[in-house]
Amino acid sequence: MIDKIPDSESLMAWKADKDRLPILQRRASQLRQKLQEADRNVMDQEAVLAGEQADVDRLEGKSLGNYILSLSRKLDARRQKEEAELVAACHRLDELREEQRYLRQALLEQQQQIMAAGQAERAWNQALADLKSGIRAETAHALADPYREREAALSQVNSQVGEIEQARTVARRAQATADTMLERLRSAEGWSSYDVWFKGGIVTHVAKYNHLDAASDLMSHLSAQLRDLRSELADIRMDLGDALNTYTSGTRALDYFFDNIFTDLSVRDRVREDLDTVQRIKGKLHQVERELDLKLSQAKGQAGQLQHQLQEILLQYAGATGD
């Protein structure tokens, strides 16, 4: 038993306040962005005002240009125009500063609300921790067994969520490797076709095998990722199935030393086979990722339900113990 159980009214008030915290934080972030923009606008308008003031000051000074304007009676009109622009710039700066003050005050109030909601969240979490300790220590209370059962179920579901997320991470990395490998194989296939029909010689050989060597390294990396993924999916009953082809040193040596169209065609066909294989693997990985996303959504939904049930049991326990 715990020494002091918060009353249900306090618990629900803390919960209501802490549930507002994400909304308050999002609003504060928006206000900060608006305030930063308002600060920039004020600085820009201050520069505009300084420019307008300089224009008016120049017309007030004694200069040959002003003397000529005064003779043609254009000085007064020019001065009125510049003074009107100066007044407009002052008014605009006042508007921007007022908006700046409003945003600062709004952000300050929002931060105060966030602090209050944070205190409520800490009080709520502490109360739940105390209630959890109390109900776990119970042996005869009617709510103790249902709580322990749901807590064990939640632990199991959370483990499943972790396994699914890990498998999804591996699947995405494997897809990225497959994409890179497809790029290399397509380039190698292009150089192989050129070699078949135009006998490009050493230049095309070097270009082709640079891509083939890179694809071979990626193939080993992808194979390791697929083995890792199969291990991660062992409890989910998924099977990737496809295996990657490998390049043999004999194929490369024949193509290099006995350069002829038949060997060139063989290499090109081998590259095309690997292109098809990797494309199938990529499609399978995409399918696996979709299934994992679905399983993850279902598991998180189940976890949310269990968390809600546990919270309800704790609130019932608080009410029963506090009576």
Number of helices: 8
Biggest sheet overview: none
Q: Unreliable stretches, pLDDT < 50, 5 or more residues?
A: 243-265
End-to-end CA span: 14 Å
H/E series:
HHHHHHHH
Q: Could you describe the 3D structure shown?
A:
It is a single chain. This protein has two domains: 8-137, Helix Hairpins, CATH 1.10.287; 152-315, f41 fragment of flagellin, N-terminal domain. It has eight helices and no strands. Helix 4 (75-137) crosses helix 8 (261-322). The longest helix is centred in the N-terminal third of the chain and has 63 residues, at 75-137. The protein has 323 residues and is mainly α. It is flat and about 90 Å long. It is 87% helix and 0% strand. It has helices at residues 8-19, 21-60, 64-71, 75-137, 144-198, 202-232, 249-257, 261-322. The chain starts with 7 loop residues before the first helix and ends with a helix.
